[in-house]
Design brief:
The complex is a heterodimer of chains A (about 150) and B (about 130). With about 150 residues, chain A is mainly α. Chain A has helices at about 5-30, 50-70, 75-80, 80-95, 100-120, 135-145. In chain A, α1 packs antiparallel against α2 and α1 crosses α4 (about 80-95). Chain B has helices at about 1-30, 35-40, 45-50, 55-75, 80-100, 110-125. The longest helix of chain B is centred in the first third of the chain and has 30 residues, at about 1-30. The chains are: A mainly alpha (about 150), B mainly alpha (about 130). The interface of A and B includes residues 66, 78 and 109 of A.
């Protein structure tokens, strides 16, 4: 893992949570859309918050697919779940919403999970496929060495 | 009856998201390290190569299905149930699917991480 890769993971986290927050804010300004007037959802993109939210979610998708090109799915998903924590902290300290003790416990669990996965390897490495009955010299040597 | 509808829609979200994530992950491993490709071939070649991958297109389709299932679920159930239930079950489902279909080495460390995050998300959004 290089600094650039951590930067991509940070991008996934930040773009996803800020994009969702902006989309949510914009859609609340637009008002609720009835299931019978689905075409009116197209006009929702005229709202600047919604438009900027969509741009951020596109950035999220680009960084997410980039991360998946060099890391396991079971590494990327927990590693980028800090976005939930970020949203809760924004709610508490910027929007001054009440965050209940149960939610603080949730924040602690997610942070713990991220710490767990971040300490391990990012990508599963498989040994190169070997034709059946053909054992490479190196692994034979390693096996006999281990037995000794 | 409404509870049954809501939970069916939640399971549909979880199933479609897991399928989408697994396909996308497989597609990007086939495409290769995006940064190395970008340095070698340039931005448009990387985008073209990604869009030409069938697993990528199927993955995006599955994610679209997940999104529409979410809309259905939200029309039947409360967002405070649907969002955390779907998100945390997707974490667990992905850990299982990544082990089975992507042959990722989901060791104890990753299981604990997936379960902690799933629990945390359920508490946070609940």
């Amino acid at each position: 893992m290089t600094f650039r890769k951590y930067l991509i993971l940070a991008g996934v986290t930040i773009f996803a949570s800020t994009g969702d927050a902006m989309l949510s804010h914009g859609m609340k300004q637009t008002g609720s859309i009835s299931i019978h007037q689905l075409p009116s959802v197209i006009f929702a993109v005229l709202n600047p918050w919604v438009a900027f939210g969509i741009l951020l979610l596109l950035a999220f998708f680009a960084t997410y697919t980039t991360a998946l090109s060099w890391a396991d799915l079971t590494y990327v998903l927990p590693a980028t779940s800090l976005g939930y924590v970020l949203l809760a902290l924004v709610a508490r300290f910027i929007l001054h919403e009440h965050v209940s003790p149960l939610r603080w416990l949730g924040i602690a669990l997610i942070t713990g999970g991220v710490g767990f996965v971040a300490g391990g390897p990012a990508l599963t490495t498989h040994p190169p496929a070997v034709p059946i009955g053909h054992k490479p010299e190196a692994s034979n040597a390693a096996v006999s060495g281990a037995r000794l | 009856m409404k509870t049954l509808y809501t939970w069916s829609a939640i399971l549909a979200i979880v199933f479609a998201s897991v399928v989408g994530d697994v396909l996308l992950s497989r597609a990007m491993k086939q495409v290769g390290d995006v940064h190395a490709l970008w340095k070698e071939l340039g931005t448009f070649a990387v985008i073209r190569r990604t869009l030409a991958n069938p697993n990528f297109l199927l993955g995006v389709t599955a994610m679209a299905v997940a999104f529409f299932s979410l809309l259905f679920a939200l029309s039947w159930g409360d967002v405070s149930l649907v969002a955390p239930a779907a998100a945390s079950l997707t974490f667990i489902g992905n850990a299982v699917a990544a082990k089975v279909f992507l042959h990722e080495k989901v060791d104890q460390r990753r299981w604990i991480a997936a379960i902690l995050v799933a629990g945390g998300v359920a508490l946070l959004a609940g």
